[in-house]
Every structure is written in C-alpha cells, then in structure tokens.
C-alpha cells in the first residue's frame, strides 16, 4: 500500500514539475550517491578557482527531539516565524500543546461485540477484529484483533496519561498450526511492544515476543518502565517482518493498561451494575452477564454459552493472614456429578502470569500438615445447588499482593454462577456460614438473626445410627452424597450399612450435634470386599481410605480425627473407637466421613460404615428408668436396641420393649452408661 501511494505522489510531482533541481533521493536516476559526486565535483572546481568552502551539517533529529521545545520555539519566533507554524493541533493548547481534556489513564480492550476499537486506538494496520472460530482462534474470550494483511501490521494506541499507571498486559498468539494462523518461523517475524512519549516520533522497546514462544495463546504482563510514565504515552504492537498476505499471522486480545490498586477488600453482590466489570471490583470477566441462575432470587454473575475458558478475575488486593474469601457458587445447576469442567479458585502473585489453587488437593499419601482436602475445586453435583464457601486466607497468600480468579475450562455446555463475593477482614464469627459479610456486618439468611447469624435452635444430643431402617438413615445426617443403605459390601456390622459406591463425591455429614458432655465416636467400617465382587472392589492405594474429621464452625474449617487406611490385602471390617478431643465438645459439632476423589479421577474401592455412635456421657447418671412409653426406644437412655419395638406385648399391661422381628440376626439391647454405687439395686 505504501509503495502504491508513493508512486502516485512522485508521479504527480513530476508531472507538475514540483521537484527542485536540488532534489536527490526518492527519484529514479537521481540517487544520493549521484548527489555526492556532483557536490564533490563542484567543490573541486571551486578550490581550483581559489574559492573557500564552508559546510553546515544539520541533524534534524537532534534539533527537534533533544533540544528543549520552549527554547526552540523562542528561537523560531526570533527569526520572525509565528502562526500558523507554531499552532497546536485541534484539542491541544499551550506552549507544550497539552490536551484540553484529561487523557485516559487506563484501557481495557476486549474487542467484544460492544467494544469500539476507535475509543482506544489511533491506527490498526493490517488487522481486523474476528470472532474466535476464525484467524488464530480464541485467545482469551470471544473476539480477537487478528493480523494477516499484506502491508504493515501494527496496532497503535492513542496517548494515555500513564503517570500513575503500572502495567500493560495482553494475550498474544503468533502463528501455530491453524489454517489461518501459521508460519512466523524466524525471530524477525516476531512482535515488538514499544512506547513513545513524543507523539510517535521515536519509539522505545518494552518487550520482544519471539514466535516460538507464542504458538498458543499466552498471557503477557509488563511493568511499565519509569521512562514510559508521562502525561501522553502511546503504545504499539507491530510485526517487524512477514512473508505477505495470509502468512505469518498473529492475534492479540484483552489489552489492558492499569495501575495496581492494592485494595484492602472486595465486595460485590452484583445488584448495582448492569455490567459487573464497570463496578471497579474486577480486572476482567469473560463475557459474564448479570441474571438469575438456578432459582436464585437475586441477581448473580453468570458465565455460560461460551466455547472459551470462563474466568472471573479480581483486581489486586493486599490481604492479611486471617482475612477470608467468601462467596456463593453454583456449578451447572445440576445434581449430576461431573469430574470434567469443574470451577477452580486460584491465586496469582505475578499479575496473572502464573496461577495456583488457593488450596491444592491433599490426601493420605502427601504431607498435608493435618489438612486433608479436595482443594478449591468445585464440581457439579455437590456444588450444583447454591453453596456458601468461606476460606481463611493463609500466610502464603497474604505474603504478597494477590489477584484471584474463578476459572472453568471451555465448552458451551458448561456454566457456573457467583454471588455475594467478599474478600477481606472477616465479619464476626464469619457469620457462622449462615449469612454474607457486607460492610463489616452479617446479612443473615432466612431463619437466622443476630450479629453472627447464630443458630439458636436446640441441637441433637449425640448420634446413634445402626442404619436398620429399610430406606433411609436416621435424621441425624445433614447430607449423604454418593451413598445409600445396602449390603453391597456385605454385612459391615449387622443388617444394612451406609454403602458408598457412586461416582464423584462420597461423604456423610452429620447435623450439628451437642457433644458437650460426650466422650467418644465409635463406628464399624469396611473398605472394599473380600470376595472381589464388582459392587465392592478391593482397594489398591492409600488414597482410597476414608477420612473422619469434625468442624465446630459450620464447615468452614475441619480437623482430622482419623484417617482410616484401606487394608489392601485384608478387607475385613474394622471397629474404630475415638476419644473426642476437648475442642470437639461443643453444642454444634459436625462430624464427617469422606473418601477423596483422588488424583485424575482414578477408580476407588467402595466402602460402608455401620453402627455409628457419638455418645457415652462424660458424667454418668446415678439412676436408670424407662417405661417405654415412647414409640421408639429413647436414644438418650439406650445405646442400642436392635430389632426392638416399644409396644404392648405379652400382656405387659403397658408398653414393653419387644424383640420379635425375624431378621435372621441376633436381638439385643444395650443401655447407656450410668454410675453404679454401693447399695444400688435393679
């Protein structure tokens, strides 16, 4: 294009005899070498005739780029040169031609359907905005700025006030193996990132992007050099060399210029801004929309209907150890467990160049410092309904300024939503995970009140479950995932057991229990079967064990009681009795049995538990009496009543404890412990 324009201009000037006889260069047959020969010839002739020769060498670059402009203007005015030579361009005034309107100091170019490139860029040569199924594909989300033209390939920003800016970042791909994105095999076919503080007269290099390192979309983050911070700085990305139209293509997306904000907290319930990015809380959101998701009553942030990876990225925060990350999440609005396409909560200390899970999965085979966890990975199924998550900030995360992101691998069929996000100093008692933290106070869920959203209802005293109901466990369980009553691992203790065999999460979590004066947890467990049956396969590694832990803060944090390791060569049942530690004795203790998902979705052995007891008083009663007037044996008096029913029987004259059900098993009853003193009778 430049060659064509040049030829037309030269042709026009020749036809109209606009070139001086002193013009050399740019004209065929009048090269600068010819000019030098003619000048030397004239100098030789002058010397032969006895004349003196004076030479003046002019460096226009130094004259206009390194000399102070105000001094230069004064010299020009002293020569009698005034307007229009010294007039500023439209929109600029003063001796230094400063802009009449304040310049933008930030930029976020996502090239989406609602984005207008002219708002941030002066020139785009050789490139165009394309959607993700063309050109170099999706780099971050949706559309990209794709370069494949025959001439210059460059994108140049307008001038920005970067005095307070800290970084420029973007996603870049150079070539690769796509039909419309290939080539770029040599270094000089790479991309340069440069800046100018003098309107584009001179440019300075920030980074060179070598093609071999950008065959796939890669995030680029650059801290601005101090010399790039000025009231009017331009940036450009350009390709030094290419092999012609449709070859050595490249693309860029999500170009951002900004400053580190080091926010002390972040809070967003997505009720106040139609475009969440404009709330000032988020660095970027991949095509997220505000709406109501999966029976939510309030607005949420929804990420759906995108082939690309989905992510929500916070601005940078300066946190302290003991702060919290709190949010509500729903993955897929489905009870069906899927191991693929989970949502991961990650953090970065380097502006997003590298990411790590806030908590990595950690199981028996690893050194977990007592914290066995599935990590900050959220799957459909267990998180297919709205779940309130609270994560204390660790010392590792609080060590440096940090950004967080919720990230889900791409696919149109997969989605997730967020709501009530809060990161910062905790509210009192973390609202007991029954409310959201807003402006340092708890907004409680329905049914809970007070400054900490405490549960004032009376909790169940201990737990006794032999799973002898034909259909469901007792009502002492908050949730059971991946398990049901059955005998598929054989008889664990006697009768039915709680048997776990389904894909995905396998856990049994009690309701909050009053364990204030209780002594122990007891249960019988069997991991795998000794008959090699399909319904109860033998374990093959330690990670197929079952972890028993407890929580006293409504499932915010967990403390391990025991890791029941599988008996790899002997799958007989195991009787387990555990003393409850002092800090597990509260009026709201939750106990959990769970089997890790493991790494990479490997197969796991099935397992069952039976005869679960949370009981045995620390201080025993001195008397014992029961007339069996209740419909069932009183669980506060009877530790076990197998195959027993309280009813009138054998002319008892009132209710008695009758053992009559034919189960093919022994019938027995055990009473709770009480203190026997000298002289007592039965």
TrEMBL record:
Record keyword Calcium present: yes
Signal peptide: none
Database matches in Gene3D superfamilies: Galactose-binding domain-like (2.60.120.260)
CDD domains registered for this protein in UniProt: EGF_CA
Start and end residues of each EGF-like domain: 442-453
Stored InterPro entries: EGF, Reelin, Reelin_subrepeat-B
Keywords attached to this entry: Calcium, Cell adhesion, Developmental protein, Extracellular matrix, Hydrolase, Metal-binding, Protease, Secreted, Serine protease, Zinc
Pfam families listed in its UniProt record: EGF_Teneurin, Reelin_subrepeat-B
GO MF term list: lipoprotein particle receptor binding; metal ion binding; serine-type peptidase activity
Location(s), subcellular: Secreted, Extracellular space, Extracellular matrix
Example GO BP: central nervous system development
rRNA processing as UniProt keyword: no
Known function: Extracellular matrix serine protease secreted by pioneer neurons that plays a role in layering of neurons in the cerebral cortex and cerebellum by coordinating cell positioning during neurodevelopment. Regulates microtubule function in neurons and neuronal migration. Binding to the extracellular domains of lipoprotein receptors VLDLR and LRP8/APOER2 induces tyrosine phosphorylation of DAB1 and modulation of TAU phosphorylation. Affects migration of sympathetic preganglionic neurons in the spinal cord, where it seems to act as a barrier to neuronal migration.
Family: Belongs to the reelin family.
Subunit text: Oligomer of disulfide-linked homodimers.
Protein's name according to its UniProt entry: Reelin
Organism: Mytilus galloprovincialis
